[in-house]
Amino acid sequence: MGICGYFVVSWKCLVVIALRLLFLVPAGVPARSGESSFSKPMDNVTVRQGDNAILRCTLDNRVTRVAWLNRSTILFAGVDKWSTDPRVVLLNNTLTEYSIKIKDVDVYDEGPYVCTILTNNKPKASRVHLIVQVPPKIVNISSDITVNEGSTITLMCLAIGRPEPTVMWKHLSMRGQRFVNEGEYLEITEISKDQSGVYECSSSNDVSAPDIRTVRVTVNYPPYIFHARSRGAPLGQKGVLECEASAVPVADFEWYKEDRSSDRQRLIYSSNEKLSNGLNGVKIENKGRQSMLIFFNVSEEDYGNYTCVAMNMMGITNASIILYGPGAVHDVNSAALSPHNLLSLLLTIILQYFLKF
């Protein structure tokens, strides 16, 4: 089997190989006389992947023969190169130093290296362990995702590197950056709309700058109207009623006017229509989450109670708004529908919404 076995080369075995090699080194190696010594044991050499590694062996003027080995492979014996790897070069061969350089170091270069010397047929060896550090790299990350409010999601961020990188998640929301979790997997249970936005995965191991990737999480939620105020407008002038709703996906708007004669709500406008329905001199403008009902020339018939309805695939909501004339006294907070009218209106809207599909 040989002195070291076929597959595993221990430190002890490597040193034995190195010492035996010294007796086979060609006579062309410069001869030195006396007893050798090392001023101190060699330290580990740590380099980053892609950089150059320099392995130094400190000598004195009594050394006769020298060599560098990697595992069971002879790299250099004196000035003679035995390695076929073009990246390995002899850097110094002087009375005080015998060093080699490995260019463009990669992870497979990591491991034990032995410098052997011979003095008066008395071999000695010094060993060094080459450690190759690898910058962090994210190799797999979750794609952007859209979920409904209340769902549970798991985000994944897999990274490699040497030393093993630390993976951290941060939530980059409009309220500011916030640490969320440490680890490759981030689980969010019963997600809310406030937890939507960009999530940043950072992989770091102090070898180089962190590797950073992001995942966008979109949370669908039903509309809620946060701005709807009653307004006054004189006859013959312009009047505007505004309704703003937050929702994902963006809400569709419909406007209804209370019919005084029948005590029912009459549809004025739907988001899917280009023109107003049923009233002259009225224009609807939708801009994102805002809908405006514009009266260019307010008449007596225009005064009354209007209902703004906001809806999307997640739900539906409404708010009542009053357009009133000068001097009219209105309780803005009481501009709401009766339970009977509200139920009737909601059933009508829901039926119309589903008939679209």
TrEMBL record:
Compartments, as annotated in UniProt: Cell membrane
A Pfam family that the UniProt record links to this protein: Ig_3
Residues in the signal sequence: 1-18
Coiled coil: none
Keyword Nucleotide-binding: no
Gene Ontology annotations for the cellular component aspect, listed alphabetically: plasma membrane; side of membrane
Protein name per the record: Opioid binding protein/cell adhesion molecule-like
Native organism taxonomy: Eukaryota, Metazoa, Chordata, Craniata, Vertebrata
